[in-house]
Amino acid sequence: MSGAAPQKLRIVADENIPLAREAFGALGEVRLCPGRGLRAADLGDANVLMVRSITEVNAALLEGTGIQFVGTATIGEDHIDRAFLATRGIGFSSAPGCNANSVSEYITAALLELARRYRLDLGSLSLGVIGCGNVGKRVLAKARTLGMRCVVNDEPLAAETKEPLYRSLEETLACDIVTLHVPLERGGPYPTRHLMNDDTLARMRPGAILMNTSRGAVVATDALRVALDSGHLRAAVLDVWEKEPNIAWDLLERVAIGTPHIAGYSYDGKVNGTRQMFEAAAKYFGVAATWDPAWVPNTGVRAMNLAGGLDEAVAAGYDLLADDRAMRALLALPEPERGAGFDALRKQYPVRREFPCLTLEGVPDPGLVARLRGLGFGLN
Fold first, then answer.
1. Residue of 261, 275, 338, 346 with catalytic role
2. Is 21 one of the annotated active-site residues of the chain?
3. What does DSSP assign to residue 229?
4. Could you read off the pLDDT of 10-33 as tens digits, one per residue?
5. Alpha helices (H) in 191-236, listed in sequence order
6. Residues of the chain with pLDDT > 70: what percent?
7. Using 50, 70 and 90 to split pLDDT, how confident is the model at 288?
8. Which one is the CATH code of 9-94+266-295: 3.40.640.10, 1.20.58.100, 3.90.870.40, 3.40.50.720?
9. 66-95 per-position pLDDT tens digit
10. Per the residue annotation, which of 105, 113, 242, 244 is the catalytic one?
11. Is 79 a catalytic residue?
12. Bridge-partner residues for 209, per DSSP?
């Protein structure tokens, strides 16, 4: 269903959406606001709302407002009350796949760091991928490029397609490393809230590693704490946390790598999300889509002479440990100030370009060339 465009669209957008003013300004008048804590009174006479994952969009926010269209620059939709939007005839668009490559690059960097830190041979290890949507598919491809044996679990897709690719949860939990790429579903036939709990964590292989870049509530904090403290799990990598931004700070001290919900925060992924929302809103209101993100500045695009191997290339493409250090620096703050610090790390996140924006030169080893290409790097 589409809506008739008012004489001039009035758009409220999260201030952390990149190029929001430039993109949505092609549709109408734009006002930028902080996404966390947004209230109905902040919407004024707006008829379009563009958010990220930190804004709960529901009756409490929209009742009595003139909002006709909501867009979210995210893959996940658990912060959106879709049923309420439907009852009010409010248009909606998410941004499926916008930052999938960004998350898969984060996982690649984390896998290589885990291999270095724990002296692991990724080529001899298995990776359990739970959730094989836009992100999971890219993680799967990159893990195979790294030589890992992959076991995939996606119960909705298994039921829909009957494809043999999808294995049981039990088989997936038996892998050396398990990575989560599911939406947060609190009910329905395939709930994922606390998918990783006392029982499922206990069913993981002793000494295994858990990685979560999906939604914080997919993992039960208390259960993970116990699994790490007991030594049943060797390590965990968390980019997402329960009760963000006021997370369980003691869990950050226990994980191998901890970051402030930025796995999908590449500049390229953010611009993709902005573009998808812009195009959806333009289509909904029947407005000409005149904004073209092709002019986006080439900030961070560069070439590099590769003297080392795969680890050096990935670290040059994305410095994961810099994000981990920034997150751990929050522990030096008084605890009441850490939540604001968590949000600040996201708001002030530096420009991070994806692997294709880094062209590598001087790579003589054909085997390494193939792997670098498989991860998405450009090569001369």
1. 261
2. no
3. H
4. 999 999 998 999 999 999 999 999
5. 198-202, 221-229
6. 97
7. confident
8. 3.40.50.720
9. 999 999 999 889 999 999 999 999 999 999
10. 244
11. no
12. 177, 235
